[in-house]
Amino acid sequence: METGEKVNKGLKGLEEKVFDRDLCADCGACLSLCPYLRSWKGRVVKLDNCNLEEGRCFAYCPRTEVDLNKVYNKIFGKSYEEIEMGPFRKIMMARAKDPIWTKKAQTGGVVSALIDFALREGVIQAGVLTPRDGDLLPQGKIITSRKAILGCAGSSYVSGPTLEALNRGPWKGEERIGIVGLPCQVLALARMKTSELEKKTPIDRVDLVIGLFCTWALDYKPFMAFLFERVGSRSIKKLNITPPPERILEVTSGGTLYRIPVDDIRSFIRPGCRVCLDMTAELSDISVGTVEGKEGWNTVIVRTAMGENLLRRAKKAGVIETRPLSKDNLDHLKEASLLKKRRAIDALKGKEGVETAYFNLSANLIKRILSESGEATP
Amino acid sequence: MSSIAQNAPGKTVLLMGNEAIARGALEAGVKVCAAYPGNPSSEIIGTLAKVAEEMGLHVEWSVNEKVALEVAAAASFAGLRGLCAMKQNGLNVASDFLLNLNLSGCRGGLVLVVADDPAGVSSSNEEDSRIFAKLGDLPLLEPASFQEAKEMTKSAFEISEQLGLPVLIRSVTRVSHARGNVCLDELPQSGPKPRFENSQRFFALPAVLNHKLLHEKLNRAKQMVEESPFNFYRGPEKPELMVVTSGSGWMYSLEAVINLNVQDRVGILKLGTTWPLPESYVLEHLKKADRILFIEEVDPFLENNVKEIYAQSCLVLGLKAFFGKASKHIPDVGELNPEIVTHAIQNLIQVPYEPRPADYALRAHEAAAELIPARALSFCAGCPHRATYWAVKIALALDGRDGFVLGDIGCYSLGMGPSGFGQMRTLHAMGSGTGLACGFGQLNRFGLEQPVIAVCGDSTFYHAAMPALVNAYYNGANFLLLLLDNSATAMTGFQPHPGTGSTATGKEAPVIDLKAICEVFGARVEVVDPFDVAATVETLLKLLQDEKGVKVLILKRECALVSAKHQKRLYRVEVDQERCLGETCGCNRLCTRIFKCPGLMWDKAAGKARIDEAICTGCGVCTEICPVSAIRKEKD
Predict the structure, then answer these.
(1) Would you state the pLDDT for residue A313?
(2) Most buried one in A277, A326, B516, B576, CB count within 10 A?
(3) Helix axes B338-349, B248-260, angle to 10 degrees
């Protein structure tokens, strides 16, 4: 930059800033916008060089030059300052009431139940969710039915290019859209909304964003190779990580439950996740995660008027039930969320420095994050 | 009736050099003709195949050059006349047999025509095959004109029979592929009945004895060529400079001397029998001049051999100055032309001459640039190879392990350039891609993690890749072989081959099924249509994941040029310019910038893509690459 050379903000820039540094989260925001990028088994792959100086791939990416204040202002009307877990209106525990959701759910079934409710109420006409194929590979899918929602429940702890489905369509053109995404995807959606580039995507029709808590995602290929070696079978039914302090990956395959210590899989964490500031998907309407020590319940953070309205209606309609979140749980959540930010900053310091990171944070905010996040046991 | 089969003695017809050679063989009463196609030799056997029926010949496209020479040699052993033709690379393949055949000798006239490709215009290499004549102690003739091409071929059969040796004829592109007047002679009406005389033996062994006999034959040949009409001198009795030349060099030298108007100062010794050289004849002419310039294409063959003769007699001849490739007056690589020869002569005798204005080439280039579309060396519109490499490029990128493609000989050799998206990494001889893959396919144990892909065409597979595939299975090599089955020997002119169901003469033949062969050789075989890009990518990825042993993917789709001859185009393809986003599309002109089928063009006025209807063959592959589906296809 000092040389006065024009910085490429197209695919070339994306390659230098994200692919070459192994920061890609495989969120899918850059996919199906052009023929040069494709996702394959958890990796975004460049097929050809593109010499455009500016491109949506770069503009939408959650790992390129993110102006956090600009993005947070667009979504919440305020700057990036609530460092604990982002702006919110309410926080609670919740779970779906209909066993159709809780039976298949990873925890409380709130996400599936809310998307189903939003569809039935006409708040949205389509959802973009993330089912997994027979080999546990996640991919984005447009859904309009309850059956399809059920097919997307659960997690494989692997990120997938969900947003590709948003870009790709096919769309009729009028649908209001709801999306369930990981923090990186929720950030990408916010960047899509704030981008000044010609859009040609249905981002302006995305009315509902439900974010999922995430501490990290695993790199698909090495993780699957590891799993198949451990389990000795390719037909894996369910993956679940038990809450701390145990932290065991439970793998259900062929009627057997395998228990693998999480420490054994940490080496498969995507490098892009290690520099992520966001555990609670701060840029969503509603964020949903687990509750420590309360099996079958979700933590729900309501962040926007849209989110608040939907949750209220869902509760009134008997789709979900809620309870207050205990102070202990709330403290733990804040602690964990801040810890993720601290670790990201530490990781960046160990790399090329926070000053040249993909986001801009004032020195003051960095100091606050570092001082407020007491080092705790993970 | 084809002009080469007409029995019209005295008639002058316009013939291509290769046709003249074919006619010479007919006039010599040839019965068996065999070849593997290769430019610039292909038309010799191609022409004979067309008249095989009416002339009562056996003409075949053999599976490779070695087999072709063996087929022609068998005719010779049985007392018939046999002709074999090949390009320079082909002689390398046939050389193992040839360098035993020289020792065993032969019976009926046996002529081997080798057409060299100086500058490698349509070859993987540049090579002077004349060295094989010296290596094998075999007589060599070099035609310099079209008439001579016919006469020499006829004469070569005679020499072959007199010596009991195969005779080589070396042509080059500008003799084989140019056309000129040829005066015809009579065609023989009958020939001998073939019979293998059981009293005869054709062995190279005992090698030393036969080698000695071979040298005796060569000495007889030396005597025979002293009187050859193919060697002559034109020029003054005491020239300031004598050009010694052969083959294509004759015409270039003649033109240069006339252009410079130095006929009274420069003489030309034109030699047609270049191995063995007519020693006395050469010595006699060396006496005429003290300054000698050699003009010949590719290697200094004449230059070195004449110098050898001179060295033996230098005390008698006195000091001479020799010019040519060694003195750097003539380039030692590439093709010659009259201009190069003119400059060489001009330098040596100091004649002022400007063949054309100094800036002519530049101006010609500029003038042409306006008329000729700028286009890189490219696959034809609708070529299945483009679709194949497109899929390979995508699959290797997605696979992400830095896989690479080992190339082979055929149209698909263009895979090394932009038309094949630069996917190919090696290119050597026929079948070498698969052979190299056999080696790369063993390197996993040393830690090679990259997937190995070899490409091979259908004709090349039968020619030389089959043994490599057997080797792969036997030795357990791990690689993926892509068999690009376009059902034609496309690069050399669509000659049939063992997979096409017909022979050189158009007779029905059994189809040697590629898939069945590969399966018998133990490979896991899949077949796809490369025009179905998505399915091809998927299959490639699947096979790349399989890291055990040899896998074969047959990409089956007929050559677009062959298809065009017998079927309507598949689709009418057009760009919906309403849909095409032009310069504003995120695709950044993928269709014309990267995919680059000549059937696609950039409509500058509209700022959008367009189909060039004159060129598009309607394969429809480009409809799969447009991200906004602006390219549409409709059944035609």
Answers:
(1) 97
(2) A277
(3) 50
Tell whether A33 lies on the interface with B, counting CB pairs under 8 A. Answer: yes
Query: What pLDDT digit, counting tens, does each position of B54-67 carry?
Result: 999 999 999 999 99
Contact B464, B433 (CB under 8 A): no
Taking CB atoms and an 8 Å cutoff, what residues of chain A touch B587?
Answer: 34-36
Same domain for B272 and B291, yes or no, is yes
In this structure, what token pair is assigned to residue A88?
Answer: 């919110």
Helix (H) or strand (E) run with residue B534 in it: helix B533-545
Domain shared by B156 and B112, yes or no: yes
pLDDT digits (tens, 9 = 90+) for A249-265: 999 888 889 999 999 99
Q: How far apart are CA B493 and CA B459, in angstroms?
A: 12
Q: Collect all residues with Cβ–Cβ distance below 8 Å to A346 and sequence separation of at least 6.
A: none
- Does one domain contain both B324 and B411? no
ipTM: 0.82
CA of B415 to nearest chain A CA: how many angstroms apart? 16
B399 contact A CB<8A: yes
Can you give the CATH number for the domain in which B573 is found? 3.30.70.20
Mutate to test the interface with A, among B540, B579, B588 (most CBs of A within 10 A): B588
Do β-strands A141-143 and A126-129 pair in parallel, antiparallel, or remain unpaired?
antiparallel
| Rounded Cα–Cα distance for residues A44 and B1 (Å) | 63
| The token pair that represents B137 in the structure block | 């102690």
The model's pTM is 0.88
- pLDDT tens-place string over residues B100-114: 999 999 999 999 999
Question: Does residue B622 carry a pLDDT above 50?
Answer: yes
- d(C-alpha B148, C-alpha B501), whole Å: 37
- Per the CB < 8 Å rule, is B398 touching A45? yes
Nearest CA among A295, A298, A241 for reference residue A268: A241
Q: In sequence order, what are the residues at sequence separation of 6 or more whose Cβ sits closer than 8 angstroms to the Cβ of residue A266?
A: none
Give the pLDDT confidence score for residue B567 in this predicted structure: 83
Select from B544, B565, B586 the last residue of a domain.
B565
Q: Which chain B residue's Cα is nearest to A54?
A: B586
Contacts of B586 in chain A (CB under 8 A): 33-34, 52, 55-57
The Cβ of residue B77 has, within 10 Å, a number of other Cβ atoms equal to: 20
Rounded to whole angstroms, how far apart are CA atoms B277 and A283? 89
Rg over CA atoms, chain A: 20
Is B399 in contact with A40 (Cβ distance < 8 A)?
Answer: yes
Q: Which domain holds residue B241?
A: 232-349
Q: Which two tokens stand for residue A242?
A: 């038990």
- Among candidates A33, A35, A198 on the partner chain, residue whose Cβ is nearest the Cβ of B590: A35
**Residue A40: which of B398, B590, B626 has the nearest Cβ?**
B398
Note whether A50 contacts B: Cβ–Cβ < 8 A: yes
- CATH code at position B280: 3.40.50.920
Q: CA angle B488-B490-B493, nearest 5°?
A: 110
**What is the rounded distance in angstroms from the CA atom of residue B32 to the CA atom of residue A323?**
97
Q: Are residues B485 and B551 in the same domain?
A: yes
Q: Where does the pLDDT of residue A2 fall: very low under 50, low under 70, confident under 90, or very high at 90 and above?
A: very low
Same domain flag for B267 and B195: no
